[in-house]
Design goal:
Helix content: 25-40%
Number of domains: 1
Shape: globular
Strand content: 25-35%
Number of helices: 1
Distance between the termini: 35 Å
Order of helices and strands: EHEE
Structural class: alpha+beta
Strand order of the largest sheet: 1-2-3
Largest sheet: 3 strands, antiparallel
Radius of gyration: 11 Å
Length: 68
């Protein structure tokens, strides 16, 4: 399975953004690098937070909105 992202609203409801977001990455660094490039698009598609999954198990959750 590798490293994948789960996309959520602020209250934890799952969001299905546009195609291309079901990609599995070979390592954590590649997954995080991709997110660094894609987070603005995800925000535009209604994603407020993401959870990084390693082989389906949650590693951490983080918000995508800038700190105020």
């Amino acid at each position: 399975m590798g490293w994948t992202w789960r996309y959520e609203t602020a209250d934890g409801t799952l969001v299905r953004p546009a195609a291309g977001t079901d990609e599995a990455f070979g390592n954590q660094a590649d997954a995080e690098s991709w997110l660094g490039e894609a987070f603005r698009v995800l925000l535009d598609q209604g994603v407020d937070q993401v959870t990084l999954l390693e082989d389906g198990n949650p590693a951490y959750t983080m918000g995508l909105h800038p700190a105020e």
